[in-house]
Design brief:
Blueprint lengths: L1 H22 L1 H14 L14 H20 L2 H13 L6 H26 L5 H49 L4 H11 L3 H14 L4 H12 L2 H16 L3 H58 L4
Length: 304
């Protein structure tokens, strides 16, 4: 009975995906008709290039399914997902992440069914719990990957800020303008902060106001120190105060915060080492120290 149910579910899923794939064909048909109208009447239309099966079937099906999922999802969740992707460095678009999420969830849902059917076992409570566990792993794994990527990017930006701000301060005090100093830092420093800084400079060169570009720079990074720095620079420009003085104060504060974070990590180190000591190192020491004594006692007192 479970095999027939699985076959029925597979046929239903295949028909559902095909309906979704061909349901979004109106836009494709319109684009083809527009391209034919744009061609001269005397010329024969060129044959379209051959596309693979993934481009003809899998990609449209996945795109249609993603569009259906986006219609169901609340706008707040989509905005939050877009924000998290920006904080992660935009490794993919929202549609790409949703596609990745659907593929991972479907794979982890189908994998236990395949294993159970290959083993010839029946579907009992244990098997259903295993299927639910795999489904949860497939659902939360993309979210965990995105959160880990956001955290790593924030740590890289936070690590490079003090040295970068020192270089900006030196360049400004040497006579360079703020934009030239930021461009010099974007060339010399490597990492996500340099990439975001270069992006902000390109936006400024294209006509965006400097305060808006700096504010978006802080929002894209998600680092509190960088947001404080950009707000201080924006306020200094609006108030007409010396930018060099503001930069020096911000650089000193960043060095103090870096030293405080290092001290906090040093204070937390003994607590983090407690669990490996208790559960890994101490049992091994007890075995090495007391093991020979136990063996000697058992040999000398066999009937004890």
């Amino acid at each position: 009975m479970p095999v027939e149910i699985l076959v029925g579910l597979g046929v239903f899923a295949a028909m559902f995906f095909l309906v979704l794939a061909f349901g979004g064909g109106e836009a494709t048909m319109r684009s083809r008709l527009d391209s034919l109208r744009a061609q001269p009447r005397g010329d024969e239309p060129e044959a379209p290039p051959r596309r693979s099966v993934s481009q003809r079937l899998i990609a449209p099906t996945t795109e249609a399914l993603v569009q259906q999922v986006k219609r169901v999802m609340p706008t707040s969740l989509l905005d939050g997902l877009q924000t998290r992707l920006v904080l992660a460095g935009e490794p993919m678009t929202v549609n790409g992440f949703l596609t990745f999420h659907l593929i991972m969830s479907g794979t982890f849902v189908l994998l236990p069914f395949v294993i159970i059917l290959a083993a010839g076992a029946s579907f009992g409570p244990i098997q259903l719990v295993a299927v639910g566990g795999f489904a949860l792993v497939g659902f939360f794994l993309p979210q965990m990957w995105l959160s880990q990527r956001c955290g790593q990017r924030k740590q890289l930006i936070l690590k490079s800020l003090p040295d970068a701000f020192d270089l900006i301060t030196v360049c400004v005090e040497a006579g360079l303008g703020l934009d030239a100093a930021l461009a010099r830092v974007a060339e010399k420093v490597e990492g996500p902060f340099a990439n975001e800084l270069a992006r902000s400079l390109r936006e400024i060169s294209l006509g965006k106001m400097r305060r808006e570009a700096f504010r978006e720079l802080g929002q894209r990074s998600g680092v509190a120190d960088l947001i404080t720095f950009t707000n201080a620079v924006i306020q200094a420009e609006q108030m007409g105060s010396s930018v060099g003085t503001v930069l020096r104060v911000q650089a000193e504060q960043l060095r103090v915060r870096r030293r405080q974070r290092a001290e906090a990590q040093a204070y937390r180190a003994p607590i983090k080492m407690l669990f490996p000591l208790v559960f890994c190192i101490f049992p091994t020491l007890f075995i090495v120290i007391l093991g020979p004594a136990v063996i000697t006692i058992m040999r000398d007192f066999p009937g004890g």
